[in-house]
Specification:
By secondary structure, the chain is mostly helical. The chain is built from 13 helices and two strands, in the order H-E-E-H-H-H-H-H-H-H-H-H-H-H-H. Helix 4 runs antiparallel to helix 8. The protein folds into two domains: 20-60; 78-312, Orthogonal Bundle (MetI-like fold), CATH 1.10.3720.10. It has a two-stranded antiparallel sheet with strand order 1-2. The mean pLDDT is 86.
């Protein structure tokens, strides 16, 4: 008769006995510790410079804090005042939403158009790519924003050029209906970063797809709609998410063009500019912290919606049709 073996199972490294799993786990940890050593600067930085300040700001959002005295706990009063008692807060929300809805599509459309032109350019592509990308590096600076303010101010270059062709707008900076669009144009001018990403995506589309569509009689517009847009949809989605997040946080152009006041008539009172005014000008830091957390929640919700809806229009190569 066959007898069952009572010998303890042997592990992969030759160890036996009930302590073998614990010994294997210890060996795995010994192999992993160099990775934790190299990751430790980032982990410490994330904890000290990001997570800890976020926790402190969350606490301050429930307090009355003026930067000089100890925080005074007031509970949800800051949030109630923001949502139900502060009309300037909602004006800043409306101004920011208008800016996002206008600036982001224009910027992405211009970036995609420039990328398609560069894709078909045989000579000088590197030069034009660098030239178009340069505003993305310079546009966020205060000096460029001040130059932009001078261009659109009363008597500036842009109003004078428009007046020369019979369009009398006056200075955009002092016009409540046009001031926000001066900030929009400054943002659109910085289309270089998404353009480079679009260009990389366009270069990944197989030319055979366009050749097959041309043989079937598809024109340029049909090829763009049926090939370029679907194949480029992951890149469009990536740029869209980044640009929306950045647009909600716009500050420097609004501060420079409005002189830090959000004028005229709060037409350039963007969300972050109002947050800055309440926190550092009026010294209501608890109120500003509550505004910051509401902005974080809003951006998170919008990003979540974009990711959920992307399933219906973003196409990934090799993915089955949904």
């Amino acid at each position: 008769m066959r007898t069952l073996s009572t010998r303890a199972p042997e592990s992969a490294d030759g160890t036996t006995g009930p302590r073998a799993p614990a010994r294997r786990r210890r060996q795995v940890r010994e192999k992993q510790w160099p990775a934790y050593v190299f990751l430790s600067p980032w982990m410490i930085g994330a904890g000290v410079l990001t997570l800890l300040p976020m926790a402190v700001s969350l606490y301050l959002s429930f307090t009355d804090y003026n930067l000089f005295d100890a925080p005074n706990w007031v509970g949800p009063r800051n949030y109630v005042e923001l949502l139900f008692e502060d009309p300037r807060y909602w004006r800043s929300v409306g101004t920011t939403l208008l800016y996002v809805l206008v600036a982001v599509p224009l910027k992405l459309a211009l970036a995609l158009g420039a990328a398609m032109l560069l894709k078909n350019l045989n000579r000088g592509r590197a030069f034009y790519r660098s030239a178009f990308y340069a505003p993305s590096l310079l546009g966020a600076s205060m000096s460029i924003a001040l130059v932009w303010r001078a261009l659109f101010n009363d008597g500036g270059t842009v109003p004078n050029l428009l007046d020369a062709v019979g369009i009398d707008t006056g200075g955009w900076v002092g016009n409540p209906h046009l001031a926000v669009f001066a900030v929009v144009l400054l943002t659109v001018w910085q289309f270089g970063a998404p353009m480079v990403i679009f260009l990389a995506g366009l270069q990944q589309i197989s030319p055979e797809l366009y050749e097959a569509a041309g043989i079937d009689g598809a024109g340029p517009w049909r090829r763009f709609v049926s090939i370029t847009v679907p194949m480029l949809s992951p890149v469009v989605f990536f740029n869209l998410v980044l640009e929306i997040i950045q647009s909600f946080q716009v500050f420097t152009p609004a501060y420079a063009i409005s002189g830090g006041k959000g004028g005229p008539a709060d037409s350039t009172m963007f969300y972050t500019l109002y947050l800055y005014e309440r926190g550092f000008t009026a010294s209501h830091m608890g109120y500003a912290a509550a505004m910051a957390w509401l902005l974080l929640i809003a951006i998170g919700v919008i990003t979540l919606i974009l990711f959920r809806t992307s399933r219906s229009w973003v196409f990934y190569a090799g993915e089955e049709a949904r």
